[in-house]
Amino acid sequence: MNSNLIWLVFTPLIGSAIAAILYNYKFLDRLITFSTFAITLFLVFGTHVGQTYSMNLNFMGRMIPLSWNVTHLSIFMLYISIVFGTILTFYSLMDRSRMKGFLLLLILAANNWIFTTNDMVGFFFAWELMGWASIVSVLGGRKERKSRHAALYYALMSIGGSYSMFFGLFTLWRLTGSFSISSNLAYLSSIVGVHPWWVLGIVSLFFVTFMIKAGIFPFHTWVPMAYAYAPDTFTPFLSAVMSKYGIYGMLLFLPISLMEKGMPTVFGLPWVNYIFVWIGVITAVLGTVLAFFQDDVKKLFAYSSLSNLGYIVAAISLFTSVGVTAGIYHAFNHLLFKGALFITLAAVISRSGTSKLSEMGGLWKKMPVTFFTFFIGIASAAGIPPFNGFGSKWLIYQSMIKQHLLFATILLFLASTGAFLYLFKAFHSIFLGQLSHNYDNVKEVPVIGQIVEYLLMFAMIFFGIQPGYILRPVGLIVKSVGLNPLAVMGNGYVTGMFSNVDMPLIGWSLAISFVFGFILFFISAKHKYVSQEDNYTAGQIPQDWGLTPETYQFSWKFYEPMEKLFAPFYRIKIDGFFRGLGDWTRITGSAVKQVFVGNAQIYTLFAVVGLIILVIAGWVA
Amino acid sequence: MMFFLKLIQSIGVGALSISVGLLFMGIGRKITARIHRRYGPPAIQNFIDVFKLFSKNSISHGFAYDLGIIAGTSALLAAVVFLPVGQINLFPANSSLIMILYLMTMAYLGMAMGVSSSGNPNATIGISRALTMMMGYKVPFAAVIFSVYIFARTGSLTNIIAAQSGGLLNWNMIRLPFGFIAAEIALQGMLGEKPFDMAIAPAEIASGPMVEMSGKYLGFGMLQHAVGIFLETGIMVNLFMGGAPNVWIFVIKQFELFFIALLVNAILPRFRVEEGVSFMWKIPLLLGVIQALIVVL
Fold first, then answer.
1. What's the pTM?
2. pLDDT for the residue A258
3. What mean pLDDT do residues A26-45 have?
4. Most exposed: A189, A337, B2, B78, by fewest CB within 10 Å?
5. Chain A contacts of B120, Cβ < 8 Å?
């Protein structure tokens, strides 16, 4: 029964075809998308570690071997991506954004293929399918022109990545004559001691692709645009699931660095890994600093995703058992809380009709369930125990401290504290403060949305106080890449290198102290509720000077002192490099265009010259 | 049975932290008054204030306001039970320093949520200043934590105390002097004392976060400040002064640290926010990094 691996790929493709036919009936499109996700989830239940399948595809007379192999990593990624996708598509049943279900199903097919394939042809093909389906999905955001521009930018970056992977793939094929990922990796590991530079060159071709997909510095420039202008219901998938493809690819290639002997080391790390740690740290800090000053809420959280991906890359690049555990664990946690945050943002944007922070405010009274989901989401993202973001952040710090990486650790702390700043900015500007009269008629999301929000809240608390359910499978992955897994003492424990944390105990402690807080609150003297206009204003009446709730809301220049502090860094623009490259391409292109003037004589000349070259080449050969 | 014993002990630690914190605040008012050549209120004035506040009627801006302000005190009380206080160490296997620091963040988030939901921009400006300042002092403090982790080869406060046993010369204060000075300056920021009190600057933004608080809400605010003082000075005592054999010596050591902070508070004016942050990123961070480099190399 190993052929169910193929059905993992084909079921979404069939679903996609049906959904594409019924595209005009939006609800049916969404319903088929949801049910296909659910069916695929059942197929994953029947998939086990160690399953393999192979077949030969006859392509124009040439046999192309395709093979599938399920590892611990692939099954983990399959579960988290498909479960999240199911929740998201359930949410999208009631949603009015222009996300296209059949494109999401194409991505799902590619998703399953990428995580289970063991041949590079399949990997490349699935990667392209995923890339193009997501590029087309980015089109159709609320702002037509901007989303078109974002999709174009994303497409260009993706094409760059694809070329890079294509070169890497065929270089490997020339060297080994095989497309199999596992045998090629074994080959690379075997020659890394002899020809480290060759291996480095080939691996970096692949890494460019993975870094582009994950949005790691210096290839992060597409991320904020694509995330911000994609359809609101597609952004959660883009941030939560699709950014992890790059991490998956990196995890495939990273074990090679274990074999790497003879290369110089820094702080006990191979220097390539050391550089990658720094790339991760720079991404984390950059994402944080840029997120402070965004006014578009989706852009703010796009930079936040960037920052979290930086954490993951820094952790897995260490390639120690704590580092890899922390990295994969953080990948899961990021998927959960950032997915939840983007889903609540979709809810807020669909109800308020704007994504500008400066136009929102005070929505907690109108959307309490969304408000609580968002609150738990930012508590998780800020790494507050006992919610789910804490354990992985804590392990990441320990792995960095263990390697004596002083400056990297300090910068990661900076990024984490900064995360609290931008998360609170978003929280305040959307939900707290003065409620504008424009939103007097805003209602809570429909029941389906509320069910999804309750589910996500529960998941963030559950995986926070029961981290063992994630740390056990992560331990198996860590073991399968050849490292010692961290001990898992129980479902409630996060076991670190320096100490342990008992998450249920923290939960109990919080719960009991909240009970005491509430008791004190209710036995003390009475309080009465007043309106938001009833504020301390030093004896003046704001309405007399024409102040409205919108102008009384503090959301513009939220962290002005920070802007002054970071002003010198604003002059550096990474984007400039790519724009320069674009200009250069345009100039070269127009120079080439001069040749093709449409004059028949010149074409004849080309033909003659080509013929002569051919003849000479044949003669020499 | 075990559970109830721990529960009772935890409540005891919570009550201890509240009373010690309030007492410190009262003594602080007295000392500041004497520096200013005033007579000053009695040392137990803050207890009287809290009782008075909880018995007065008050106004609220909705359940987010109530919940946030309760969370401010409760989350700090939840964190304080993990702190080893003299011979009382309720959860010795579970006293990770980073965990306690992150749990304290919950209190700041709750407080920030509560006061901002009132809709008064002064409160939000205060919170935005406090968070900016937090970014300032957390960075040198991270360097100090790094040094202590590497030096003691452990991250749990219990083991850090154990590593300092055997007299004054084994204290991290003597062994890691630069780190101690950096952490002292960071503590000044954590306590929100001058020159880092821009968050509650009364003359500029009408006491910032406290602007909308009245009655029991202000009472909760005072309790939070009291537990905050206890927790922050307590962490410093455990990190640098080798803990304490019993609660009394622990409180005396805490008071020494608080006393230094008070004296600095009484004589210095206030920084601007960006000046405060850049100061934190210059001198304490430099000291912290020097200390960490000494430890690593």
1. 0.89
2. 61
3. 89
4. B2
5. 535-536
The DSSP call for residue A239 is I
Strands of B89-132 (E only): list them: none
Preceding omega of A218 cis (within 30 degrees of 0): yes
DSSP annotation of A570 reads G
**Per-residue model confidence (pLDDT) at position A312:** 92
Locate the chain B residue with the closest alpha carbon to A364.
Answer: B64
User: Amino acid identity of A238?
Assistant: L
Confirm or reject contact between A358 and chain B (CB < 8 A).
no
SS3 A529: strand
Mean pLDDT, residues B153-182: 83
ipTM of the complex: 0.92
- For B264, list phi and psi in degrees, rounded to 5: -60, -40
pLDDT in tens, A376-407: 999 999 888 888 888 888 889 888 888 888 88
> Rounded to a whole number, what is the distance in Å from the CA of B269 to chain A's nearest CA?
19
Which residues contact residue A422 at a Cβ distance below 8 angstroms, ignoring those fewer than 6 apart?
A: A288, A291, A292, A294, A300, A303, A304
| CB atoms A375 and B113 under 8 Å | yes
Q: What is the DSSP letter of B57?
A: -
Pair A141, A227: CB distance under 8 Å: no
Q: What CA–CA distance (Å, rounded) separates A134 from A214? A: 13
Strand segments, DSSP code E, in A346-499 are 493-495
The residue ranges of every structural domain in chain B are 2-296
Q: What is the pLDDT of residues A463-491, one digit of tens each?
A: 988 888 888 888 888 888 888 887 777 77
**Do residues A296 and A360 make contact, with C-beta atoms less than 8 angstroms apart?**
no
